[in-house]
Amino acid sequence: MQTNDMAFFEALEAQFNRAMVSNDVDQIAQCITEDWVLVTPEVGPVSREAMLDAIRQGRLSHDTMTKSLARVAVYGDMAIVTGRGRNTGQFQGQAISADEWITDVYKRFDSGWKCVLTHLTPAAA
């Protein structure tokens, strides 16, 4: 991968976004590894199982999710993708919206690329 890294990872991120907005844990699970971790400013690291369980139980849902990529760096079978993300949804019955910088770390497997870590940082107002 060289000249079209940005386009490739934009498509991969769009697939991840569609999975999240589907609120279907099986679709989401296809985008992330078994040991995937979400790092949030509110609670720090959140395990894959905790995140999927929150969605499965209806405590968390997403209505919209977009990312505009700012940087893609590929290091062999690993890639770091950084962009500006915006999303809306519900958490524990309350409307939520976020505008944040998102860094996704991907690993290439025989079956394709999967996200191993997502790190969120609120964007400055």
TrEMBL record:
Gene3D superfamilies in the record: 3.10.450.50
The family database entries (SUPFAM superfamilies) matched by this protein are listed as: NTF2-like
Q: Which residues form the DUF4440 domain?
A: 10-115
InterPro entries (alphabetical): DUF4440, NTF2-like_dom_sf
Reading the lineage from the top rank, the first entry is Bacteria
Protein's name in the database: DUF4440 domain-containing protein
